[in-house]
Write a structure and sequence with these properties.
By secondary structure, the chain is of the alpha+beta class. It has helices at about 125-155, 215-220, 340-360, 370-375; strands spanning about 5-10, 15-20, 30-35, 65-70, 70, 95, 105, 115, 120, 160, 170, 175, 195-200, 225-230, 240-250, 270-275, 280-295, 305-315, 325-335, 365, 365-370, 380-390, 395-400, 405-410, 420-425, 445-455.
């Protein structure tokens, strides 16, 4: 039979023998030859035989503190002394734990290496201390895991939010929009670049009544569009963000089936905003759209000042995941963000001043000066938005843009491309925009679309 050598470190104690993670070389050593007591048949190996043992008797893979069945092969090898493990009987289970091993060349045949176990007799006190040490080790591992989890949690919580145009980012992850038309409190990162497009099915600012034609014809004759480019020139996280935008409001020289229109690429203006993140989740921004009008076409677009604050609220889940989050934006704005009745009243007052002063309404190529002045700035009105971030691909938006209620959904179709598309409907509530006493009112809800890409 294949024999194994068991080296024993003995003590005067008669406690249960178990293997430990360390040995004491100063204790007496006795050799015990043994063989595994297997239920399966063991093959006899002759010296210099080329037969390979069918069973792998190496006990190295056995888990710690497992009982090992064994039998004494050469009892004479054990000295009968007070320090020898005489209380161990043949085939008695031996509780053990691997503390080291050495290869024993028993026979010159092709078999797995023979393992010599090293074990030490322990008292009951030693066993209790070992169990306590094991328990403390487990508690330490749990504490270290909890500490690492807390660190990861804090890193996830501290991901700052940035924005700038029709979408936002959290940390390095681009997210869908949380507003459609009003600005957010999050500024653009330094040297980031964004391009966006805004479209509406009918422009409620002139003498045309939206809803007078079917949707297709109305969009061709009275639809409105604007392209905006924006870059970040500051640091909204650690200092102050500075968003510099350039907008173009004339996208075609003529409309479908008509020679009327403005030169394509005209209607240019400069947008400017300053922002600061109070916390990673809360940002404030003040600024103005169309602050500088670069040509006469742009004079009819109105200038608008604003101040907003935006906050993120985690409604559940791990903070590293951008799911189940609520974004709230509150602020004040004027210009195009006023009710239609307020805009018309201001224009009428400015035109009355021109008549009193000049006896007529001064005009330019694309309109009257008094209407331009009445459209610019004016009294501040509240604006607000609530957005529910379902996940990193989809958000739902309810927005009050000073004039009416907008409902929208924002979709980010590609995980690695920071491109967002946000369709919505506006003029949901019948207020002054629906009142026929005001020129350029509407008789139905209108469709809006914003889309932007960020680099």
């Amino acid at each position: 039979m294949i024999k194994r050598t068991l080296k024993t470190y003995s003590t005067p104690s008669i406690a249960l023998g178990i293997l430990v993670l360390f040995g004491f070389s100063s204790l007496p050593v006795r050799a015990l030859e043994w063989e595994p007591a297997l239920e399966t048949e063991s093959k006899t190996i002759k010296p210099n035989s080329t037969t390979v043992v069918s069973q792998d008797y190496s006990i190295q893979p056995l888990p710690a503190l497992q009982s090992l069945d064994w039998t004494i092969v050469t009892p004479d090898a054990i000295e009968s002394t007070a320090q020898s493990p005489q209380h161990l009987t043949s085939s008695q289970p031996l509780d053990w734990e691997i503390v080291g091993y050495e290869v024993v060349d028993s026979v010159e045949i092709s078999i797995s290496p023979v393992i010599a176990l090293q074990w030490q007799m322990l008292t009951e006190k030693d066993i209790v201390e070992a169990e306590e040490a094991h328990r403390l080790e487990l508690e330490q591992r749990k504490a270290e895991a909890a500490k690492q989890e807390a660190i990861e949690y804090q890193l996830a919580v501290q991901q700052p939010l940035t924005g700038g145009l029709y979408q936002i980012s959290r940390g390095e992850r681009g997210l869908p929009a949380i507003t459609q038309r009003i600005p957010t409190g999050y500024g653009a990162q330094f040297l980031s670049f964004k391009a966006g497009l805004f479209l509406e099915s009918c422009n409620v600012t002139g003498n045309y009544v939206c809803g007078s034609q079917d949707l297709h014809d109305e969009f061709k004759s009275n639809g409105k569009g604007k392209v905006t480019f924006l870059t970040g020139l500051g640091d909204p996280i650690d200092f102050l963000g500075l968003d510099l935008g350039f907008q173009v409001t004339s996208l075609a020289t003529s409309r479908f089936g008509s020679s009327a229109g403005t030169p394509a690429g005209s209607g240019r203006g400069i947008d400017l905003a300053v922002s600061r993140n109070i916390t990673p989740d809360i940002g404030v921004k003040v600024g103005a759209f169309n602050l500088v009008e670069l040509d006469e076409v742009q004079l009819g677009e109105g200038r608008s000042a604003f101040g907003v604050i935006t906050g993120r609220f985690d409604l559940g889940g791990h903070p590293a995941e951008n799911t189940n989050d609520l974004y709230l934006t509150l602020g004040m704005a004027n210009g195009i963000y006023r009710p239609l009745s307020a805009i018309i009243d201001d224009q009428e007052q400015e035109c009355a001043k021109d008549i009193d002063r000049y006896g007529y309404r001064k005009s330019f190529k694309y309109g009257d000066d008094c209407e331009v002045r009445g459209f610019d700035y004016g009294e501040l009105y509240p604006i607000a938005s609530a957005a529910y971030m379902i996940n990193e691909e989809l958000s739902l938006i309810a927005e009050w843009w000073g004039r009416n209620l907008t409902l929208a959904a924002s979709y980010k179709p590609f995980a690695e491309l920071n491109w967002v598309i946000t369709p919505g409907i506006t003029n949901v509530i019948g207020n002054s925009d629906w009142d026929s006493d005001y020129p350029g009112y509407t008789e139905r809800m209108r469709i809006q679309l914003t889309t932007s890409i960020s680099f």
